[in-house]
């Protein structure tokens, strides 16, 4: 998502520089792009029935859909619950680690509160690799917009300037892992496949459609 960020993100190279994402600690042995490229079918895949594979695919398809909705609605508890404990998001040469690392990127980029996000997922290819691993590609687009006149302080590190918005179509390359019986996002490449970014003045998008000024998602009001 974030070429202008997840994008953790959303999160892109521009955002990574702006937010000062730090280098990964020892447990991140490879980038998200490398993890996707190296993810291959395992011998244990042969033990899965067609029904088991279809069930896994349907469960995994929920992850990017929920990712887009929860980021758009600023439901950060929901976002935290999507990631594996050793989650890695690549943004250019920078890595974001773990759910809390992703949330910190949101804080730094302004998308945690003052910068609005509309992130839509349009389709999802899923390849099951074993009973507990998979990889996938999700087609997506996201808009960042910064409504002027808010009470939040502006730091200058926001992913978009006040009164402006950006639009980016992209593809998310992800790997997945089954943790305690539930599929989670393990790695996320947020930068390599952003197609373009359009910049324009801020356009009003249905007040409170995604989140209230105090950050409460619509369904929790």
Output the radius of gyration. Answer: 17 Å
> Can you count the beta strands?
7
CATH architecture: Roll
Structural class: alpha+beta
CATH domain class name: Alpha Beta
Number of helices: 5
Question: What about the largest sheet?
Answer: 7 strands, mixed
Q: Give the CA-based shape.
A: elongated
Overall mean pLDDT score?
82
Task: Kindly state the percentage of residues in helix.
Answer: 10-25%
- Strand percent estimate: 25-35%
The span between the termini is 27 Å
Order of SSEs, N→C? Answer: HHHHEEHEEEEE
Structure description:
This protein has 221 residues and is an alpha+beta fold. It has helices at 13-19, 32-38, 50-72, 76-80, 98-109, and strands at 83-91, 94-97, 116-130, 133-145, 164-179, 182-189, 198-201. A hairpin with a 2-residue loop joins strand 1 and strand 2. It is elongated and about 60 Å long.
Concise description?
The protein is built from five helices and seven strands, in the order ααααββαβββββ.
């Amino acid at each position: 998502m974030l070429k202008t960020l997840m994008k953790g993100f959303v999160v892109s190279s521009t955002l990574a520089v702006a937010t000062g994402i730090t280098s990964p600690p020892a447990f991140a042995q490879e980038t998200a792009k490398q993890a996707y490229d190296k993810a291959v079918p395992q011998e244990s895949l042969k033990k899965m029935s067609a029904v088991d594979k279809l069930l896994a695919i349907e469960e995994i398809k929920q992850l990017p859909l929920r990712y887009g909705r929860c980021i758009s609605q600023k439901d950060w508890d929901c976002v935290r619950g999507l990631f594996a404990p050793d989650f890695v998001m690549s943004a250019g040469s920078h890595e974001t680690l773990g759910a809390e690392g992703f949330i910190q990127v949101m804080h730094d980029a302004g998308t945690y509160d003052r910068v609005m996000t509309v992130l839509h997922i349009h389709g999802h290819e899923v390849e099951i690799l074993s009973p507990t691993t998979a990889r996938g590609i999700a087609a997506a687009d996201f808009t960042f917009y910064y409504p002027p006149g808010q009470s939040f302080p502006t730091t200058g590190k926001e992913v978009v300037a006040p009164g402006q918005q950006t639009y980016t179509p992209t593809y998310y390359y992800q790997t997945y892992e089954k943790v305690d019986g539930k599929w989670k996002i393990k790695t996320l490449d947020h930068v390599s496949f952003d197609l373009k970014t359009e910049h324009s003045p801020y356009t009003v998008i249905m007040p409170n459609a995604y989140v209230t000024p105090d950050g409460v998602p619509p369904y929790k009001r």
